[in-house]
Write a structure and sequence with these properties.
five-stranded mixed beta sheet; single chain; disordered N terminus; 10 helices
């Protein structure tokens, strides 16, 4: 059965797909097309990526043809994810790609963008019963981190406010768009008014093919800054291969690190060996149970009352 979420209007699959279509959230496809247009990409690799587009279309068609719901759907989606990643990353890139595409696949985001696009598909009313995506921002986004007022002088205070909205690009976000307007006049006279918009993220997930100590520390800093701007936000890492000693993320602002393959990164001397990479994919596929754990975290966030001051006296504590 799908996870239940009270108070949210249900969207059928057709409306859901229309919403995603308007968002144009196909980060992996976009990265393939960008690589094909890259003048540094060898012609043979461009032909390979054209072939990858056909496999990509088949992957998406199979995803959209699923009729299952809830945990069963997640399991089937992960099976298709493993099928596509094995074809794309092993059979095409590792076995047939040039040294350029093998070396640059990380910079071109050809691999981790697969997970980014998978997560967009995961936020689905057939996984989360009652989910309404029509007013949500979902997928790779620049999201709000902080807002500052920076007047240049005392004399400038009554003039048009100077503000600085700091945002950061994230691999995957669930949030909403916030519109703002600041003015030094109550009538919001245009010469003295500044306005704009930003994405407020309440859930952020970063997708990492490999996670090392430096990446973990950077993520911890990002999570802390995110929660300064939105204290109810959740921050997760989704990792395929671990390249560090696991740490207790409760000592940081990271909510959890999900190890999708239960696997460590291959030793340096094996990373460019197609047979070793193929064996690792086969022995350590992405685990649908770990993905389901992530789904449950999203559901808890969606179902919770984040803060209700009227409950403080009844509860006997502020939080």
């Amino acid at each position: 059965m799908p996870i239940k979420s009270k108070g949210l209007r249900s969207l059928n699959l057709t409306i859901y797909l229309e919403v995603l279509g308007r968002m144009s959230l196909t980060p992996h496809r976009d990265k393939i097309l960008a690589a094909i247009k890259n003048p540094k990409c060898p012609d043979d690799d461009k032909m390979l990526l054209q072939e990858a587009l056909s496999i990509y279309d088949e992957w998406k068609k199979k995803l959209h043809s699923l009729t299952s719901k809830g945990q069963k759907r997640v399991r089937e989606m992960v099976e298709l994810l493993n099928w596509y990643k094995d074809l794309f990353e092993v059979e095409l890139i590792m076995k047939q790609g040039s040294s350029f595409i093998k070396r640059q696949k990380g910079q071109l985001k050809l691999d981790n963008s697969i997970l980014e696009e998978f997560l967009i598909e995961l936020v689905n009313p057939d996984v989360f019963d009652g989910l309404d995506t029509s007013k949500l921002e979902i997928g790779p986004k620049n999201a709000f981190m902080s807002l500052s007022f920076i007047p240049r002088s005392f004399k400038e205070l009554p003039q048009k406010p100077r503000i600085f909205v700091k945002t950061k690009a994230h691999d995957f976000v669930i949030g909403t768009k916030i519109y703002y307007k600041f003015s030094t006049t109550d009538s919001f006279d245009k010469p003295k008014t500044v306005d704009g918009d930003m994405v407020l993220a309440v859930l952020v997930a970063e997708c990492k093919v490999n996670l090392d100590k430096t990446m973990f520390q950077e993520a911890a800093g990002t999570a802390a800054r995110l929660k300064q701007g939105c204290p109810v936000a959740k921050y997760f890492l989704l990792v395929e291969y671990l390249d560090m000693v696991p740490e207790d993320c409760r000592l940081t602002a990271i909510d959890n690190v999900f190890l999708l393959r239960h696997a460590r990164r291959l030793p340096f001397e094996k990373r460019n060996d197609p047979l070793e990479v193929e064996k690792q994919h086969k022995n350590h596929p992405i685990d649908h149970k770990v993905v389901w754990m992530f789904v449950q975290e999203i559901q808890k966030l969606m179902s919770a009352i984040w803060y209700d001051p009227d409950e403080a006296l009844r509860r006997g504590s502020f939080v």
